[in-house]
């Protein structure tokens, strides 16, 4: 009898404890996986890696400033990585490492778009959103975002060079790499503009000069061109180091005011030559804003808002990326800057 009573008491106690457990407050229950309250806003739920061409280049240091500022302001987990020098194989290795780190999107400025295709496809196969920049026509990305129409940019460069040269004389074209998609588009457009509008100017019978995004190389090759073509009057360059490198050679050879260099550039590099007149103007876009625009476009993709990515789209708060033109995977802004001695103080990059 005592044994039976003991069993009954144990059963009653167990049922009582079970009832107490079921009535615990949420804070007393075992913790469950938290749901991010900002998930619907996309503020701190996405991990977005941005890969640039060269982490030591002032251009991409400025790009990093923009991405870091966006991360601070928005809560998006976005950051910048890149090779220590402009080396395509090293950049591809950076991408390889990142896609093993549980990222949601990659924003890439490829050194060699063709060489990057395999690793970007690997990322895409893992479900990673791919947004490229300076790689128009890339068929692996989700979207390629350009700061402007590339043909218009090249034409504007030629207009500035023609103005400096008095619309007469021979000139030469320069790029970072012969495999650089956007650089060659700009130079092709510049040459086409010259042939259309400036018949007294002529392209020298020289292959497009490749300077590997290196100012010293641009400087040395410019000196070689001036020696080989004594009547040369102009250099037009795609890389941000081409025009200042050529301008340095022009100044050192005492040809300031007789030969001119125009191209992509930033005041922090081209400043001395904007002042001397050997590099009368540089064209560019703000890389800080380009980085922010890439990230915001990636977020739209991650939020499943691709229907919003169409002509007329405005990326709020990013100057030059309003009323975008969308053509398939290619997206174009209106962010061209033309900087000369008079306005160079307005730009801190």
Structural notes for this entry:
The protein is of the alpha/beta class and 349 residues long. It is 42% helix and 17% strand. Helix 8 (242-252) links the parallel strand 9 and strand 10. It is elongated and about 60 Å long. The termini are far apart. Mean pLDDT is 89; it is low at 1-44.
What secondary-structure arrangement, pairings included, does this model have?
Layout: H1 2-22, E1 47-51, H2 58-74, E2 77-81, H3 88-98, E3 105-108, H4 113-125, E4 129-133, E5 143-146, H5 150-165, E6 169-175, H6 181-197, E7 201-203, E8 209-210, H7 215-228, E9 234-237, H8 242-252, E10 260-264, H9 267-276, E11 281-284, H10 287-302, E12 325-327, E13 330-332, E14 337-340
Parallel strand pairs: 1-2, 1-3, 3-4, 4-5, 5-13, 6-7, 6-8, 6-9, 9-10, 10-11
Antiparallel strand pairs: 11-14, 12-13
Helix pairs in contact: 2-10, 3-4, 5-6, 7-8, 8-9
């Amino acid at each position: 009898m005592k044994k039976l009573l003991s069993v009954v008491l144990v059963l009653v106690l167990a049922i009582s404890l079970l009832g107490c457990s079921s009535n615990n407050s949420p804070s007393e229950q075992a913790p469950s996986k938290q749901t991010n309250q900002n998930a619907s806003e996309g503020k701190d739920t996405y991990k977005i890696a941005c890969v640039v061409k060269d982490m030591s280049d002032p251009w991409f240091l400025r790009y990093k400033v923009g991405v870091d500022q966006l991360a601070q302001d928005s809560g998006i987990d976005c950051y910048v990585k890149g090779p220590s020098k402009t080396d395509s194989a090293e950049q591809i290795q950076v991408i390889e490492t990142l896609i093993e780190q549980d990222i949601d999107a990659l924003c890439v400025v490829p050194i060699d778009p063709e060489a990057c295709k395999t690793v970007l496809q690997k990322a895409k196969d893992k479900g990673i959103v791919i947004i490229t920049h300076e790689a128009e026509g890339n068929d692996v990305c989700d979207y390629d975002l350009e700061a402007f129409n590339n043909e218009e940019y090249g034409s504007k460069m030629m207009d500035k060079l023609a103005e400096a040269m008095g619309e007469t004389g021979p000139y030469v074209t320069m790029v970072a790499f012969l495999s650089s998609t956007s650089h060659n588009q700009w130079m092709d457009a510049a040459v086409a503009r010259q042939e259309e509008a400036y018949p007294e100017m002529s392209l020298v019978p020289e292959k497009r000069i490749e300077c590997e995004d290196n100012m010293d190389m641009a400087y040395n090759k410019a000196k070689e061109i001036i020696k080989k073509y004594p009547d040369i009057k102009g250099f037009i360059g795609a890389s941000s180091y081409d025009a200042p490198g050529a301008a340095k050679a022009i100044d050192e050879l005492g040809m300031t005011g007789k030969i001119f260099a125009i191209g992509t550039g930033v005041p922090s590099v081209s400043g001395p030559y904007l002042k001397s007149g050997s590099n009368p103007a540089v064209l560019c876009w703000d890389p800080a804003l380009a980085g922010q625009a890439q990230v915001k476009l990636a977020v739209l993709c991650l939020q499943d808002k691709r229907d919003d990515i169409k002509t007329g789209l405005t990326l709020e708060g990013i100057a030059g990326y309003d009323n975008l033109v969308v053509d398939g995977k290619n997206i174009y802004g209106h962010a061209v800057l033309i900087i000369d001695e008079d306005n160079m103080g307005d730009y801190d990059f």
